[in-house]
Amino acid sequence: MEANAGLVAGSHNRNELVVIHGHEEIKPLKNLDGQVCEICGDQIGLTVDGDLFVACDECGFPVCRPCYEYERREGTQNCPQCRTRYKRLKGSARVPGDEDEEDVDDIEHEFNIEDDHDRAKHLTEAMLHGKMTYGRGHDDEENSQFPPVITGIRSRPVSGEFPIGPYRDQMSKRIHPYPVSEPGSARWDEKKEGGWKERMDDWKLQQGNLGPEQEDDIDATMVDEARQPLSRKVPIASSKINPYRMIIVARLVILAFFLRYRIMNPVHDAIGLWLTSIVCEIWFAFSWILDQFPKWFPIDRETYLDRLSLRYEREGEPNMLAPVDIFVCTVDPMKEPPLVTANTILSILAVDYPVDKLSCYLSDDGASMCTFEAMSETAEFSRKWVPFCKKHNIEPRAPEMYFSLKVDYLKDKVHPNFVKERRAMKREYEEFKVRVNAIVAKAQKAPAEGWIMQDGTPWPGNNTKDHPGMIQVFLGHSGGHDVEGNELPRLVYVSREKRPGFSHHKKAGAMNALVRVAAVLTNAPFMLNLDCDHYINNSKAVREAMCFLMDVQTGKKVCYVQFPQRFDGIDRNDRYANRNTVFFDINMKGLDGIQGPVYVGTGCVFRRQALYGYDPPKGRKRPKMVSCDCCPCFGRRKKKVLSKPGANVEGASLEGVDEDKQLLMSHMNFEKRFGQSAIFVTSTLMEEGGVPPSSSPAALLKEAIHVISCGYEDKTEWGTELGWIYGSITEDILTGFKMHCRGWRSIYCMPKRPAFKGSAPINLSDRLNQVLRWALGSVEIFFSRHSPLLYGYKDGKLKWLERFAYVNTTVYPFTSLPLLAYCTLPAICLLTDKFIMPEISTFASLFFIALFLSIFTTGILELRWSGVSIEEWWRNEQFWVIGGISAHLFAVVQGLLKVLAGIDTNFTVTSKATDDDDFGELYAFKWTTLLIPPTTILIINLVGVVAGVSDAINNGYQSWGPLFGKLFFAFWVIVHLYPFLKGLMGRQNRTPTIVVIWSVLLASIFSLLWVRIDPFVMKTKGPDTKHCGINC
C-alpha cells in the first residue's frame, strides 16, 4: 500500500471511482537540472541511459554518483536527508545488504534485453506469485483445495501492498520481498544453522565452556522449551473453591426451605402484599441460580511470551508470528473527540509486534472531515512518537496517558538522552494537540457550501447520510517510515458508503465493512477490535492473545480471546460501579472454566474464520469397537460391502461429468453466503491469511470500494450468520453467542498489566443511559429468534452452564419489575401497618437467619478466590438496585413497545469527552426521566420510616416489635439507594432546582397519606354497632 497517494472515493452501484490527489501537502521532488552535489560540490551527472542521476528516489537529495558509490561502500548506505537506504542502481557494484532487496542475479539482468511481451509476463508473475511480506508462502498443494472457478488461477499469497498511484511506477519494483530461500534448500539450512551456531557460541563464551557436549544439551533444551505449551490453566486453590461450592449447595437447600415456609404461611389480612412478595422472591431465586452456577468452575490463566518468541521468532529465520488487523470505530467527533481517537491509534502503531504484520483500520461512520484531518495529523506525529516509544520501552504508549502519569518516569530508564528526548517529545505532543484542537474548533460550524479539501475538491462526506465509500492509506510500505527510517504499520482510513433507503446497522454494519475491506487489502487471520477510547495499555497485549490463538494444541478451536475492560478517570470510591469488577473478575473467570467468556464489544482478538461462520476443526474421534461374531453383546459386527466389477469405473466417470457442475454450484453458494466479490470469497478460504491474487491494481482498488458499498450485503448471510450479528444494539452478545453455538470456545486473558484501558461515564445520568442501552439490547435478544432460551439446541454444542449465562444476560432486565415492587413494599407496610410475613416462631426464624448467613458467606468466599475488594462488591450491589429500578425498567418498557407496537428507539453514543476539573463530571447533574423511579422510591421509603416511627411512639411499647422488621426492610432500600441520593445532591449547597420541585411535589402527595393515617390521634375503641345499633 502506498501512503498519501490520495483519497479514494467511489460507489459500486453507481459505477463511480475517483482518486482525489493533492489533499495532503506532499513535498515535491527538487528540480535537479543543473544542480551540484551537496556533498562534494561536483556536477551530479547522468546515468548510463543519459538521464539525470538520482540517488534517492524518496526525497531526491542531490548527490553525484561517486559520493553515492562511496556512501554505499564505506558509509551508512542511507540518504543523508531522509535516512532511506540507498537502492542499488543499474551499473553499481553490489554491497552487503543488496541481497535483501533483490531476488534476481545481476548478470542475467544487467542489461535490458527483454521485449515488451516478456516484461509484461514477468510483471504479472511478480504480482500473482510473489510472497507476502508477512507469513510463510505456501505451495500449490496447500491451495489446491480452493475451487478454480473462484480463484481463476493458482491461489498463492501475494504481497499485501495496495498500490494507488501510477501503476507503472508501482509495478516496476517489489517492496520488501520475501526471502528467496525456502525451507529445505541449502541456503536456508546454512542461514538457520549459522544463526544457531552464533547463538550457541555466545552462550558458551559466557559460560566459559566450549565443550561439544553442552552445545547439544543447550540446543535440545531450547528446542524442548519452544515445544512447550504457550499457556496453561491455573486452577483456583481447593482450599478456596471447595468451601465456596459447599456454601452454594447449602444456600440452595436453605432457599428451598425458606420458599416452602413462605408459601405455606400466608398473611390473610394482607394477602395482596404477601402474594406480591412471594412472586418477587421466587423470581429472585431463579435469577440467582442463573447467575451463580456459571461461576462453578472459575480458573485463571498464565501465558509464556518467551516460548512464543522461541517458537515463532527464531534468529536467522523469517518472523512467523501471525498478522493482525486492528479495527477502531468512531462516529461523531463531537462526542468522541478526535484527540481521544488519535491516542488510541498512536498506541496501536507503537505496539510491540512486527510492523509488517500489523495493520490498523479506522472506520469513520460519520464521514467527518474533522476525523479525516485529525488522522492525517496523527499519521505525521506517529513518525516521531513510535520510535521514541520503542527506543525507551515506555508504557503506556498513548501519549496523553503517558505524560499525565503521576509516577517516577525515570524508573528503569538508563539511556543518557532520555530526559532530553522526553522533554522534546512532550513539546511535540503539545503542538500536535494544538493542531488537532484547531481542527475540532474549525469543525464546530460547517460552512453553507460544505467542506472543501485543500485542493479545492468538495469533501465527499458533506452529506453524512448520502455519500460514497472512501478509503485513504495514511501509512503504508511506501512512505510509511518514521524519522529514523524504520517501517511503520499500515494505517487506513475507511468510511463506508451510505445511501437513503438502506439499513446500515450502526456499529455492527461498520465492523462488517471493516472485515471485508481488510480481507481485500491485508487479510490477516486474526483481528482485534477496539473502541475509539480504548487505548493499548500493555504493548505486549497482542502477543498475549497469540499465546492462545497460535498454540498448536488448543488454538485451532479458539474463536476469540477476550480481555477485561479497565478504565481511567474514575473517582476513588467508584460511586456508580463503573469498574464493574464483579463481572470482569468473577463472572468472566467462571465462564472461562466452561466454554469461555462472552464477547463484551471491545478488547477482543478474533479468529477471522470464526467470524466467517465456519465450524471449529473436529478432533479425532475414538474408533468404534468392532467385535467378532461370537460375542454380539460388545460392539457391532462390521458388514462387508460387495461391489460390482464396473461400479468403480462408472462412479469415476460420473464424478468427472459432475465436477464442473459441482464447482459452479460451490461458487454460487459462496457468492450467496459472502457476496458477489470473487477476491473476497477467495480470501475467506485462506485460513492462514494472505491477499488473493488480483489481475491489476485497479481491480484491487475497485474491489475494496465494492465490498463497502451499501448494497453489498443484500441477499447474503452478513449479519445473520456471518460477521457481527444484527438485530440488537448490543451486537457483541449475539456475535459471541453464535460462535459458541457452533462449538467454538473463547479464552479470558487477564495479564498482570491491563491490556487495554478506556474511559467510563462517571456522571449519574450518563451512566444510567449507558446501562439502559445495554439492557435494551438484552431485551431485544430475548424477543429475537436468537434467544438463548430457544436457539442452539439442534447441534448441542453449547454447554448447559454456558447457556445459563447467556439466558441470564437476556433476562436480567426483567428483574426490574419484581425489584421495583419489592422496593415499594416497605413503604406500603409502614404506611398501612401491614406486613408481608406473619408472626414467626423461634424455629421459623432460623430459616431467615440461615438465609442471610448463606448470602453473606457466599459473597465473602467469592471475594476470597477472586481478589475483588468488599468495597467494590458493595458498590456493585448498590448499583444493581439503582439500575434495576431505573434503566432496566425503561429498557423493558421500550423493548415491549418495539416488539408489540414497532416503536424503535434511537441509539445514543456515550460521550467520551473529559472534564478539565478532576472528577468535575461526577457532580454534574443532567436531568433525565430515568431519575424519576429511584427518586420516588427513595422519598416514599423516607416518608414511610417517619410515619412508622411516629405511629409506634403514639401507640406505645407493644407496637415496636412488629416495627423493627418493617424498618429493617425500608433501611435496606434506602442504603442501596444512597449513592443515587448523593448523585442527586451533587456538590454541597448545589442541589438542582428540579430535585427541589420533585421533592415538594412528592411530599405533598404523601402529606395526604399522612392525614389519612393520623398517627398522633389516639385510637379509642368505641361501642360495637353490630350489637348496640347506631344510637347506642
TrEMBL record:
**Region spans: Disordered:** 135-157
Alphabetical GO biological process terms: cell wall organization; cellulose biosynthetic process
Designated gene of the protein: CESA7A
Q: Where is the active site?
A: 365, 732
Positions that bind UDP-alpha-D-glucose: 335-336, 365, 506
Residues forming the RING-type domain are 37-83
What SUPFAM superfamilies does the record tag this protein with?
A: Nucleotide-diphospho-sugar transferases (SSF53448), RING/U-box (SSF57850)
TM segments?
241-259, 271-290, 811-831, 843-861, 881-901, 922-943, 963-981, 993-1013
| Compartments reported by the entry | Cell membrane
The record's section on InterPro entries has: Cellulose_synth, CES_Znf_RING, Nucleotide-diphossugar_trans, Znf_RING, Znf_RING/FYVE/PHD
Q: Which organism is it from?
A: Linum usitatissimum (Flax)
Kindly list the cofactors needed. Mn(2+); Zn(2+)
User: Which PROSITE patterns has this protein been placed in?
Assistant: ZF_RING_2
Name of the featured protein? Cellulose synthase
